[in-house]
Design goal:
Blueprint: H1 6-33, H2 38-47, H3 49-72
């Protein structure tokens, strides 16, 4: 399997970040409609399994992108 290019990694990171932001916004919107306190909303976001998984994947993608970028620099 061929390694992804820097552009492919960047595109994946951007798309996943957009999805994460939409998901967080959705959680906040629903929580606000339920008149939940901000502390509780923050707790929900921190403990949200899908958001946590996205953060892990984003971290891995960013490290992979750094490795690709550093290998291109002589």
């Amino acid at each position: 399997m061929q390694s992804p290019t820097e552009e492919e990694l960047e595109k994946s990171i951007n798309e996943l970040t957009e999805y994460k932001n939409r998901l967080e916004k959705e959680v906040v919107t629903i929580s606000n409609k339920l008149k939940m306190p901000q502390e509780k909303i923050n707790e929900i976001i921190k403990s949200h399994s899908e958001l946590n998984q996205i953060n892990i994947i984003l971290s891995k993608l960013n490290k992979q992108k750094e490795n690709v970028t550093s290998s291109l620099i002589p």
